[in-house]
Amino acid sequence: MSLVYVGVLSHAPGITGRADLVKNVAVRNEFYEKLDQQRQEIETAKPDALVVVAAEHFANFFMSNMPAFCIGIGAQHTGPIEDPQWLKIPATTVPGHADLGRRLCTEIMQSVDLAYAEEWKLDHGIMVPLHFLTPRYDLPVIPVNINCQGPPLTPLHRAWAFGQALKRACAAVPERVAVVGTGGISHWPATPDSGKINAKWDLEFLHRLGRADKKALLSYTDEATYREGGQGAFEIRTYIAAAAAAGGPLRLQFYTEKLPIFAVGCTVGRFDIR
Amino acid sequence: MRGLRQASNSPDGRGLVSLYQLQKFLYALNRDEASKRRCRDNIHELLNDFDLSDEERTALIEGDIGLLYVLGVNGQILMHFAAFLGIEWFDYLELMRQGIRKHGPVRAGVYAMTGGGERFTAEERAR
Ligand SMILES: [Fe+2]
Questions:
Q1: Phi, psi at residue B25, to the nearest 5°?
Q2: 3.30.2350.10, 1.10.700.10, 3.30.450.20, 3.40.50.720: CATH of B2-126
Q3: What is the ipTM of this complex?
Q4: Rounded to the nearest whole angstrom, what is the distance from the C-alpha of residue B14 to the centroid of ligand 1?
Q5: The domain spanning residue A113 has which CATH number?
Q6: What is the pTM of this model?
Q7: Strand blocks (E) in A26-176
Q8: Per-residue pLDDT tens over the stretch B27-54
Q9: pLDDT tens per residue across span A140-199
Q10: Nearest chain A CA: its distance from B3 CA (Å)
Q11: Which of A68, A267, B10, B108 ranks highest by number of CB atoms within 10 Å?
Q12: Pick from A60, A83, A191: CB nearest B84
């Protein structure tokens, strides 16, 4: 078993960029502590690389040529594309893992039509997780994108199939691989409704992950998701892919809707790998 | 690239709005340092590479966040442009609300305002 860690976390730009505006400082600090605990758990698993399954926001892909899935197999990546002052994460270069990325890609392609890119610019969707999980940027990162932004979106059952393919690919390589899925559950980001969170809907989704209930996880329609969880909730695809990669239930380590200035319910969790 | 022009449900029903081109300009700007420099130096010249309506062109030149939002620019693209312009977070949210008050509901895309213009954070309400 070369898949050594699978988890999920939120990535909204406010988590770093608007940290100073937070009134609910105790809850914010608890969230940061849980993210640091996640970093420690990943380090303890001694991975050779971290695969970040993300829902990027037009950093590399646009409606000119939008892949359902893409993996970054470059030797390095740069980010953030956003103004570093705005995101409060300095511009940096992050090591990739070209050789491992290429082998994972080759294996995943046996069952999922995956695009690849040797060039990848990181936006907040990956930079915020890395800021907490590998703050020295010394762990090779293999970015993966699922189209959660430009409809027609990647179907949920294909996100699940991708997760399963990723699991098989990790089993076929000697390296130790950690995987995180990063997305929001309900949120209305970058709109005037920013800060709106449907905690009930979030917790129902998290319970489905906690039961590893594939049927329930794949039963959401985009229409219902948009209505109940907003356009940001299309990012549940990343959690679903992580769930499929892990094969076991999610153990939720943190959730709060009490930091709406971050424009997302803040989540940290780890899956049992089965 | 006229074939790529995308229809939008503009309330006056006149013509097609090249939302695709508008967003493509912002996508290129957001991710590319050279484009940012060109934009600061001479936005007019940079805009010549894109097939835009006069309304869209003016909105970009003036940094009219409210109008760009109503025209249907995806929030994830618009948010980065607002940051590039140095617009503070709560001002960005308010500019979008003002855009809706002035021009009506968002005309295309999935980033419509569905929350009635409410302020959803204590931090913004306390401003
Ligand atoms: Fe996101």
A1: -60, -50
A2: 1.10.700.10
A3: 0.94
A4: 34
A5: 3.40.830.10
A6: 0.95
A7: 49-54, 69-72, 76-79, 92-95, 115-117, 141-146
A8: 999 999 999 999 999 999 999 989 999 9
A9: 999 999 999 999 999 999 999 999 999 999 999 999 999 999 999 999 999 999 999 999
A10: 12
A11: A267
A12: A83
